[in-house]
């Protein structure tokens, strides 16, 4: 069945990205909570229709590690895209000072299975693997969203800025000046997966702004520097990472794309094989992460309020 705006009751805003806003909505006929992404595009009706048609293959993207797609429609020059609402939000807002190794393995295992499914079953390369596109719910499930299904949509998104945190593989950064279409292969996603894994583990983007004061310095480090790695010894008293975890991340962050590990190699490595035999309380971790986030937000509000009373 097709979804349209009249069936939706708009609720809270969930977040904003470079291309639009995501709102929580209630689909009244079915009483299902959904997340609706609004993407503003200056396109004619034919192109908008082409995008809606291309998005349709998402109805086949049914997998435990992929956010469910409910439908898309357009009004004037906006595309509205309705997907499963994930009630704990995206990982960037949950990882705090970093997640413990067992939770990390569970999260990245789910990411690899989702990516492998997209590639093997739908011939889709994700193209935008990063913590904001990894969603979590209170049941402890981890699912990917925002993968590149629609060529027309990709072309229409105005790439005005590359942002201050790049998850692009070295070959893509180099290839930007040439033909980026030929340089993007599935192994570019594996690099982004490696960087995202590091960020989730450490609680910060692996090329920190303190060291790389501008985007150019950061991109230069990605292309010419040694790849970042998981520390063997943890910072300020925290435990370090096992050699399995470190090897696995290094397998993602091989600079030559041909030598980077495949999804099969990543899944068959002991870091993820061991995870399958372990009990990990993901539900408990999510509850804990949400509570941490609540108190962090409260602190920020307090600081803002006191700054105001002090006349700033
Ligand atoms: P970018 O624009 O660079 O891709 P982004 O991924 O953060 O960044 P959006 O995809 O527009 O931007 O999403 C904005 C925010 O909305 C996300 O960071 C996430 O926290 C939230 N969000 C997106 N989809 C959902 C969903 N299905 N359920 C719950 N929250 C969501
Ligand atoms: Mg996103």
UniProtKB/TrEMBL annotation:
The keyword Acetylation does not apply. Transmembrane segments: none annotated. ATP binds at residue 37. GO terms for cellular component: cytoplasm; protein-containing complex. Its EC number is 2.7.12.2. It is an enzyme of class 2 (transferase). This is mitogen-activated protein kinase kinase. Residues 8-272 form the Protein kinase domain. The keyword Nucleotide-binding applies. Keywords: ATP-binding, Kinase, Nucleotide-binding, Phosphoprotein, Serine/threonine-protein kinase, Transferase.
């Amino acid at each position: 069945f097709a979804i349209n705006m009249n069936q939706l009751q708009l609720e809270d805003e969930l977040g904003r990205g470079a291309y639009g806003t995501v709102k929580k909505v209630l689909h009244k006929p079915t009483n299902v909570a959904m997340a609706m992404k609004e993407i503003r595009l200056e396109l004619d009706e034919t192109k908008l229709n082409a995008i809606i048609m291309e998005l349709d293959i998402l109805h086949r993207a049914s997998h435990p590690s992929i956010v469910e797609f409910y439908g898309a429609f357009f009004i004037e020059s906006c595309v509205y895209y309705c997907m499963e609402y994930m009630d704990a939000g995206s990982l960037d807002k949950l990882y705090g000072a970093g997640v413990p190794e067992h939770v990390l393995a569970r999260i990245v295992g789910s990411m690899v299975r989702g990516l492998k499914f997209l590639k093997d079953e739908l011939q889709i390369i994700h193209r935008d693997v990063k913590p904001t596109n990894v969603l979590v719910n209170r049941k402890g499930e981890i699912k990917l969203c925002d993968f590149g299904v629609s060529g027309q949509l990709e072309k229409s998104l105005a790439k005005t800025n590359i942002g201050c945190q790049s998850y692009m593989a070295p070959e893509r950064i180099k290839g930007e000046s040439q033909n980026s279409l030929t340089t993007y292969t599935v192994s570019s996603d594996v690099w982004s997966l490696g960087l995202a894994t590091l960020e989730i583990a450490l609680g910060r983007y692996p090329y920190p702004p303190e060291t790389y004061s501008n985007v150019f310095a950061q991109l230069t480090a990605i292309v010419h520097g040694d790849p970042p790695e998981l520390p063997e010894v943890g910072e300020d008293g925290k435990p370090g990472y096992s050699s399995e975890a470190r090897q696995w991340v290094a397998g993602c962050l091989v600079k030559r794309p041909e030598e980077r590990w495949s999804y099969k190699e990543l899944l068959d490595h002991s870091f993820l094989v061991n995870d399958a035999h372990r009990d990990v309380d993901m539900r408990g971790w999510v509850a804990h992460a949400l509570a941490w986030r609540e108190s962090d937000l409260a602190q920020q509000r307090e600081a803002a309020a006191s700054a105001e009373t002090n006349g700033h």
